[in-house]
Fold each of these.
Amino acid sequence: MKHQQTVVGLDIGTHKIACVVAEVSPDGKVDVIGIGTHPSRGLRKGVVVNIDSTVESIGLAVQEAELMSGVEVKRVYTGIAGSHIHGYNSHGVVATKDGEVSQEDVTRVIEAAKAMNISADQKVLHILPQDYIIDGQDGIKSPVGMSGVRLEAKVHVVTGAVSSAQNIIKCCHRCDLEVADVVLEQLASSEAVLQPEEKEIGVILVDIGGGTTDIAVFINGSIRHTSVIPIGGDHLTNDLVVGLRTSPREADQLKRKHGACMPSMVAPDEMIEIPSVGGREPRAMPRQVMIQILEPRMEELFEMVKAHLEQSGFHNQVSAGVVLTGGSSLLKGAVELAEEIFDAPVRLGRPSGVGGLVDVVATPVYSTGVGLVLYGCRYRQTNTRSTTKKHHSVSGPSLWQRMRAWFGDTS
Ligand SMILES: Nc1ncnc2c1ncn2[C@@H]1O[C@H](COP(=O)(O)OP(=O)(O)OP(=O)(O)O)[C@@H](O)[C@H]1O
Ligand SMILES: [Mg+2]
């Protein structure tokens, strides 16, 4: 047996559960060796609302990935989303102990930055360092070893509802899976689809899934803003169910096959066949009717994203524009419509940075699943090489401490 290690990403989405099994070689090469997906039944708008159904879907997705990879899945990195998630920028200051910044000073300053009023039902999920300032000199990424007496840290703090995190962990435990970490979904997706240069010059990631649209803004290499909008592609499907009087399953298939959100992309006279419910005859309908239903909904969604970004104040600082990912980014015309609304360059983000079953995972549907694997690899590295890891790693309390906090100290 070679010294390969396995890292597994478990994306518990509103629309599907995806389990991505990857093998990591000692030199850091990541090869996807198995994938399992199963429709998700127990979530609403990114949040677990039915444990039994979620457990069943997770079990089936994991089983499929195990069969394909020949690996028994024991430990997973899993994601979290939903409108209970909040992102804040915060700031901390400490005096260094010996006139030189030590790792301990960095830990203290991050703790100081974390000290903010969080409501009792929320817990810190991530503390993501942005910049350090030493004696007024800003823009420092690796402060350890530098001289100075006053150390300041700018961080992005992500909090989420304790109960939502607990339910995700509970579902995994019920499937005999240990949870290595619970990661903000757009943070995971960003690992898989954004290029380091994009994060440097400023980029907006918009992951449009089935139940939520997750936003993350990166500037100067660090995360500056995160938010979640509880609307996704399943809302488009529901609109089609009502508008075309067909079943949710058929509506979803029609959307994938014939859907579009730019009227100019479809010939005015093109007809499509709509399967009806209750054994009635299928009907023919102009394809433009579908576009008339989908276009306003996508427009509304992008306008909401734009409003979030304008509120964050970062919308003018993103030279790399917008990267769309998640299953709904595949809707025909989504990139073009987003370009119009954001008045910025927009591209489709597919997972990259992995080998193995590349053809299977190179779709925006697997951005979070692959991202969780990549996040897991990075996290393991920060654990084993903590003295050499410089910055932008996720710091703060260990997952074990956080999980104990989520469950109370007795568990
Ligand atoms: N080719 C396509 N065209 C249009 N929509 C698509 C296409 N493929 C998938 N979708 C839509 O993408 C959505 C699912 O996306 P995804 O798999 O990213 O969701 P999820 O991760 O399960 O959900 P969430 O992240 O919101 O919890 C569904 O609404 C589906 O109809
Ligand atoms: Mg998703």
Amino acid sequence: MNLKELKLRLLCQGVRIDPRSGIDLGRSGGAGPFGQYVTIEDQVINAPIWGDAKNSPFTLTYEDGLKIVWNDESVETEIPDKPRFYDLQTSDGTPMKFIALRHAADVLASTVYQKCIYWAVSKQCKFCAIQFSLESGDTILLKTGEQLGEVALAAVKYGDASHVTLTTGTPNERDYGAGMLSEACAGIKAASPLKVHVQLSPPEDFGYLDELANAGVDTIGLHMESADPEVLRNVCPAKAEIGFKRYYDAVEYSIGLFGENQVSSFLLAGLGEDLRTFTDACERLSSLGAVTYIVPFRPLPNTPLSESRMPSHEYLHNIYAKCGSIMNDYGVRPSKSKAGCVRCGACSLIQDYVRGEKN
Ligand code: SF4
């Protein structure tokens, strides 16, 4: 199996962790598609480990060194070292690992606001685990620009990070968190040279996107999650109420602020979507100069979708091949992204399917 196929299979089948390997399963709550990072031939892959991944044919084990084994095959792997800043505190005494985590090998990642108004009214996205790490005491509700600046400075000093991803729960339907993200970004920029990516739902008033640009944000993610209206209504009811039009308008507006390849939208594959809606959305985003960041759905513990199946690797390959070709036609270049998930690439294979990127 070549590396591209192995990465594809690991992203949608996950990996079982041999208890004898001594690997700590890490967090079981938080924002984003968390799992186990494994490095194979210098590529970091964020492999699912929960739910359906317990049936994976791949096992991470220790046999004369760390390996991933399946059938009668195996490959050597490594897991990224623990970042040095995890042992430090900010000047107000908060553990730095409560402020930000290190994703993959070099991404400083923080959920600036760890709650979401939709949870209180049962309208949260059904795959999301954002509030669980707050409930378990592993993080704090709101991270300030000053705290994030101190963590960024430490992460740069110890070589723990080279760019930043900031996400947020939705604190209100006015700015959707743009104010908090702007303050967070300004704090990081004042303290470090790191480029910053932010993720939020699009506010009605695009002046808030200007505010983000003025704070120094380099790249932005406006995540539709699914382009299939029925799936979106079922899985992300609050996002469905925003409507696709505002997403596309905000993407177009953001391209004017941040530039081509610096605006992205996550589309999850494997939620039961109609394939045509997927490729149509990719075409529309690509025509605007934005990156469609395709991520296979993964079940996270304690979420309404914790028992759902992950997509097959054949289905995922089909989507990547079709969307990679669309992005090629429009000249979209994920590798030009300056910061964030598209630059990181640990959760998606899109860079492997766009000509002139890795292949
Ligand atoms: S792609 Fe994004 S969510 Fe995934 S590991 Fe990288 S920074 Fe984190």
